[in-house]
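<instruction>
Derive structure tokens from the sequence
<entry> Chain with its tokenised backbone below:
===
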Amino acid sequence: MGQITLEKNVGGIAGLCVITPAVHGDQRGYFMETYSQRDMEEAGISITFVQDNQSMSTRGVLRGLHYQIHHPQTKLVRVIRGAVFDVAVDLRPGSETYGKWFGIELTAENKKQFLIPKNFAHGFLVLSDEAEFCYKCDDFYHPNDEGGIAWNDPTIGVRWPGVEGTYHGTANAEGYCLEGTPLKLSQKDQLLPVLNRCL
């Protein structure tokens, strides 16, 4: 399979994959292929990515859980600096694992990548002082096409590592913290509904 190791259907959810690239290092540093269409196709995955995105966030920032309404995207996500806990929630109609989530720590050190198919909600929590987050998408950004689910929806039950707080019936982050650091969510994300109210 060339330069990657691929773990399919992680967490028992069909389509979710964790990809670990081969890293070639010596006293000078390292080299790795961050993406190879050939290796992906040899692993049985055929995707045409059309856009790369990158963001920087500070410790305690939680983004999500987001999905696209009319233009769903497959995403290949990774961290190039720092560490995040990355989460995907299955929203595929008729899926046996509908509403089930899987999370993985992505770091600059472990260099793992997370492949998230279309029709999943996605979000991440920044665990390090700062984190730079990169992802490929197989469709372009479409304004006003984003939906979302409350990050703390008790019917989904994502276990965000190190987060403490009490659920008060909304996505409001007040009173929640990551090992002493208050959670930071956008105003929009703090108004997101629970799953059974938005789909």
User: Anything to note?
Assistant: The mean pLDDT is 95. The CA atoms of residues 150 and 193 lie 5 Å apart. The first strand starts at residue 4 and ends at 8. Helices lie at 37-42, 195-198.
